[in-house]
Amino acid sequence: MASRFPLAAAQEKILLYVLAAIQFTHILDFMIVMPLGPRLMEIFRITPAQFGLIVSTYTFSAGLFGLIAAWFLDRFDRKWALLWLYGGFGIGTLACALAPNYHFLMAARFLAGGFGGVSSATILAVIGDAIPPQRRGQAMGTLFSSFSLASIAGVPAGLFLANHLGWHAPFYLLAGLSALILIMASRVLPSMRDHLAKEKSKPWADMREVIGRANHWRAFGLTIVMTMAGFLIIPYLSPSLVANVGISNDHLPLIYLFGGGATFFSMRWIGRVSDRLGLLRVFTVVSIVAMFPILIISRLPPVPLWVALCTSTCFMVFTSGRFIPGMAMVTNSVEARHRGSFMSLNSALQQFASGAASLIAGAIITLGADGRLEHYGTVGLIGAGCIVVSIFLAKNLKSA
């Protein structure tokens, strides 16, 4: 593809589809581990806390690699930066498929998380360089649809493979798919070097200004508690549905099929309503409603499958729905000249927050003698508390 901008309409569409495919594999690689929790705890004979480490290692690595990459990523052609990072992600995913034991899997997740997390940040930079502002919102919609697609199709397909071919199978599939997408991306991505010709600001001075403003810290705090409210619950959702509610492993794909399908429509609707009624108002309402499924699903007793599906779908719809107006307010809180550094730091803090939430939940939840997960309800109370704090921070957040 030629490196001239703006791109032709057909080239732009192909570029967005390839970027969405890259994002899809990264999201699915992260998501597929959580419903595999019951199997991994049984196969590797690990505790809920050790399983929480598998989840949190991925996010901690993404945050750490993101902090490091923020200082030098702009010194490279974005095309080749993304290709090398995505190649590293593919190698990490293949290592997950080959993992013979718990510690090898931990190391593989660290590798995949680091490269995958920075790949996602680079994708946003590619969109910023290649897509004109008047079409950037639509481009972001195409990109983030990969999350719902991963829930609707990716996770159920991965669980089907795991049920019939073993837990390694989804990672083999992802590694093979990543290799094909990498080849396609090498042909489709244009060279992006315009940012290299621009005069570079001093990174330390820019970072000092970003972290020196109280409103930025309120935005960081909002991102952290929004993330923790969900990730205290999410890593143990599948294990609790199996151990506490009595859902079979064969029915777990339905949880993600229904939840992902609902969010595919609800996220777009919440976005439109947020623009019409106001970000803070919609964020407050959706957050308050989200507390109810969090408190219910963390204490859910054995119930029929349809009750579990309704509860988990409501949990996914409202927990994810908070992020649409919430992240819009976070983005509005910083001036455009600092937005790149701010969002890089904010993304790293979000990854650390999700990892910390998994560790906290793992430290609280214990495995009972009857195989049930105990104290999951306590984790739900903490998650609801995080939502209360997020509403307070949102009300005190100012636009730049």
List keywords for this structure.
single chain; 400 residues; mainly alpha; two-stranded antiparallel sheet; 17 helices; globular
Your description of this structure?
The chain is mainly alpha-helical. Helix content is 78%, strand content 1%. It has helices at 9-31, 37-43, 48-69, 78-98, 102-130, 136-165, 169-188, 194-197, 203-211, 214-231, 237-245, 252-277, 279-297, 305-321, 323-332, 339-364, 376-395; strands at 366-367, 373-374. It has a two-stranded antiparallel ribbon. A hairpin with a 5-residue loop joins strand 1 (366-367) and strand 2 (373-374). The mean pLDDT is 83.
Total count of strands:
2
How are helices and strands ordered from N to C?
Answer: HHHHHHHHHHHHHHHHEEH
What's the overall geometry?
globular
Q: Total number of helical segments?
A: 17
Q: Bin the strand percentage.
A: under 5%
The computed structural class is mainly alpha
Strand order of the largest sheet: 1-2
Helical residue percent band: over 70%
**Biggest sheet: strands, sense, closure?**
2 strands, antiparallel
What integer is the average pLDDT?
83
Q: Span between N and C termini?
A: 38 Å
Uncertain runs = none
Radius of gyration from CA coordinates: 20 Å
What are the SSEs and their pairings?
Layout: H1 9-31, H2 37-43, H3 48-69, H4 78-98, H5 102-130, H6 136-165, H7 169-188, H8 194-197, H9 203-211, H10 214-231, H11 237-245, H12 252-277, H13 279-297, H14 305-321, H15 323-332, H16 339-364, E1 366-367, E2 373-374, H17 376-395
Antiparallel strand pairs: 1-2
